[in-house]
Structures are given as structure tokens and as C-alpha cells.
Amino acid sequence: IPEYTKLLDHQKAYLEAVKTNIEYTKIHVAFLETAYYDQQKLNVEQTLSYEESQKLFVANQVRKLNVYNKALTYSDMLQASDPTKVTWANPNLNVSAGSHFIMAELGSSLWPEQLDKNLNNYKQVLELDPGFYLSDAVLYNIGFLSSVKVKDRLENEILMYESSVQNSMVRPDNLRSTEAVYQESIDAYKRIIDEFQDSQYYSEALFRLGNLYNEIGSDAERPVQYYEIARGYFDRILGSPDDPYYYKALYQRGWTWLSSSSEIAYQKGIADFTAILNAIDNNFITDETEIIDYSVTSVKNIGYCLVGMDGADNVSVAKGSQYIKSELMNQ
After folding, report:
1. How many angstroms separate the Cα of 18 from the Cα of each of 27, 71, 260?
2. Number of helices (H) and strands (E), helices first, in the chain?
3. 3-state secondary structure 81-105
4. Inter-residue contact 296 to 314 (CB < 8 Å)
5. CB–CB of 119/146 below 8 Å?
6. What is the Cα–Cα distance from 330 to 88, expressed in whole angstroms?
7. Which residue of 107, 158, 255, 309 pairs with 319 in a disulfide if CB–CB is 3.0 to 4.6 A?
8. For residue 12, what is the DSSP state?
9. Are 313 and 263 a contacting pair, CB within 8 Å?
10. Using an 8 Å Cβ cutoff, are 223 and 217 in contact?
11. Eight-state DSSP code of residue 330
């Protein structure tokens, strides 16, 4: 009898676990449906009137809110359960981490301004399941949201500082972009490039790391070392000409050369910005916004590099004009 009772208790616990997993599966399917409706709307966007587009948008936001609330209720139920009495039907499926992932994804769509809330949900995913099957996506979002949060905080605090201090051109260290303030983002992106080389987020993680170090350099007393780190990440992208971030990385690398303020750096900056202009002429860059931005800015930056070659020397023959004659005229 005791063995029979023990077996019944085990089977009962297992059936409860199956029920719990089935409930999660229903929520997960509903979550996937919201992504499907988003994609369907995107596919026909050009054929819709503004009113039709808004109607579809609102309808899917309502779906997302409904799924979010179900995932939240489900997560709260799991949290209230005694883990010593829970038997999972599938030990390889961490439904608690999965529910936080659903809340993070939907929360980012429903309330994109609630950075802390959405960031904490993503972080909860990896705390509950370090081997989560979409860890690269989670890390990417942690890196992105954390960097946006830091930028917003710095911008607001700098505005307050400038409005209250007369000599606001000199900012204190706590109002600067540093490795320390961006460490969470840096760590998340580095994990992607170290552990998920086949991830769809790999190239973008490299690009965002380069941009972060470029920004850190622009705010540092000794910027050159940070520009070198930034170029290291951009160069990894530039090693693959077919990479979708190739020309973005080339353009940003040009900025690091321009900001490095040496004759050799200016020459390399000219080479990068010239390559951008050639890519536009040869239709390798097709995004209209990028074409306008890159065209105007690259021409200006080539000019700044040429002027920068002379520094404060107003007596000698202009190095910029010599460089044009010896190098640019032959291209």
C-alpha cells in the first residue's frame, strides 16, 4: 500500500507538471501569433490607408497585452509554487525563464519607454536559465536596452548640469561616457561574439561594440586607445566584404581616424570616406537615408582630414594640397 500510494503521488505530480507545461505552450503559441500578425501587417503596409494600418496595429497590441498578462499570471504562479514539490514534465524546458522572455519581448513592444522593466525581464531569463535556447537574443537585448538607459541618463543629467553651471563646457567625470557606465552592454555584446559566432546578432554586436568604444573615446581625456579598440571591432566586420554591416563599419571607422588627430590617421580617414563615396557611386550602398548622410558627411570629413594634416602650421606648404596631388588625383 505505501508503495502504491507513493506511485500515485508521483503520477499525480507528473500530471500536474504536464498541465503546467501545456499552459505554457498555449501562452507561447499565442505569443508567436502576435509576431505573425506583426509580420502580416508589415507585408501589406504599403497597400493600407493610415486608418487601416492603425486598426491592425491596435488589434495586435490588444493581443499582446492579453498574452503579456497571461504570461505574468503564469510566472507569478510558478514563483508562488514550492520548488521542492514541483516535478517538471520536461526538465530541459525552463518554463519560468520562457515566461520572462515572453514578457520581455512583449513589454518592449507595448511599453518601449519602460527600459528598467523590460531589461529586468531579459536579465531574469538568464538568471533562471543560463543556457536558455535564445540566449543570444536575450544578450543582444540586454546590451541594447542597457546602453539606451545609460545614454538617456547621461543626456538628462548633462542638460541639468549645463542649466545650473556657468562653465558647463567642462563636465565632471560622472557625466562622461566611460567603459564603467557601459560595462553591462559591453559584457552582453562580448558574450555574443565569444559564444555565438553563428548568431544573427554577431555582426551587429561587433558593430555596437565599435560604436560604444568610439563614443567612450570621444568623451575620454586619452581617446586614442578607445578608438583603437573600436577599430578592432569594425575591422572584424570589414574582414568579410559580404557582411551586411560592412559599409556601416567602414563609415564609422573613418570617424575614428578623423578623431585620432594625426597625419597618418587623417590619411586613413580619407581612404575610408573615399571608399564610402566610391561604394555609393557603384550602387553598393542602396539605403536612401544612408546615401544622403554618407555622401554629405564623407565629403565634409575628407575636407576636415585635409585641413587637419597641417595642424597649426600656417607657414609650410599645405600637406593637404600635396596629398591631393600625390594621392587623390590618381584615384
Report:
1. 14, 17, 61
2. 12, 0
3. CCHHHCCCCCCCCCHHHHHHHHHHH
4. no
5. yes
6. 70
7. 309
8. H
9. no
10. yes
11. G
Handedness of CA 311, 316, 319, 321 (dihedral sign): positive
Q: At what angle do helices 135-164 and 202-218 cross, to 10 degrees?
A: 20
In this structure, the chain runs to a length of: 331
DSSP-H helix ranges across 261-287: 263-281
- The confidence band for 242, taking pLDDT boundaries of 50, 70 and 90, is very high
151 in helix, strand or coil?
helix
Cell 580617414, residue?
269
The Cα 148–Cα 258 span in angstroms is 25
* Helix, strand, or coil (residue 189): helix
| 254-291 tens-digit pLDDT | 999 999 989 999 999 999 999 999 999 999 999 999 99
Cell of 158: 548633462
Q: Is the dihedral of CA 244, 248, 251, 257 positive or negative?
A: negative
Of the candidates 186, 226, 231, the residue with the CA atom closest to the CA atom of residue 209: 186
Question: Which cell goes with 89?
Answer: 514534465
Task: Give residues with Cβ within 8 angstroms of 147, minimum separation 6.
Answer: 182, 185, 208, 212
Buried b (16+ CB within 10 A) or exposed e, 18-40: eebeebbeebbebbeebeeebee
Cβ-contact 199, 190 below 8 angstroms:
no
> How far apart are alpha carbons 207 and 143 in whole angstroms?
12
Q: What is the pLDDT of residue 109?
A: 97
Does the pLDDT value for residue 243 go beyond 70?
Answer: yes
Assess contact for 322 and 311: CB atoms under 8 A: no
